[in-house]
Amino acid sequence: MTMKGWRSIVPRLLIAAVCAVPFAGAGCSGNVRYVDISSKPLGATIYVNGERVGVTRYEKVRLAFGATGSRTCIQLVKHRYKPILQYYQIDEVPEKPQMFLLEDD
């Protein structure tokens, strides 16, 4: 490409990049919710989409959602108890703390 060709492309790329910056985080921040999770008995390990995020009573669990209609999985695991799976879509995340009752295995 000639120098003249670059001169016409570079300003367009810069304008596109500058215009995109304010919107870069907009989709991400709108796709995150937080929920308080506890269990009876306490001490269950909390996983969100397979990633360990804490142990009950964990103050807030961060749930990140991808594309529209995607679900996030919360799993609670404690030795000698049956694991619990709970799926949420972004509009289903409760505002109140969630208490999960673990059953003996």
Provide a descriptive summary of the structure in words.
With 105 residues, the chain is of the alpha+beta class. The chain contains 2 helices and 7 strands, in the order ααβββββββ. Strand 5 and strand 6 form a beta hairpin. The longest helix is centred in the first third of the chain and has 18 residues. The radius of gyration is 22 Å and the shape is globular. The termini are far apart.
Question: What attributes characterize this protein structure?
Answer:
2 helices, Immunoglobulin-like, alpha+beta, 105 residues, four-stranded antiparallel sheet, single chain, three-stranded mixed sheet, 7 strands, globular
Compact summary:
With 105 residues, the protein is of the alpha+beta class. It has a domain of 71 residues: Immunoglobulin-like (Sandwich).
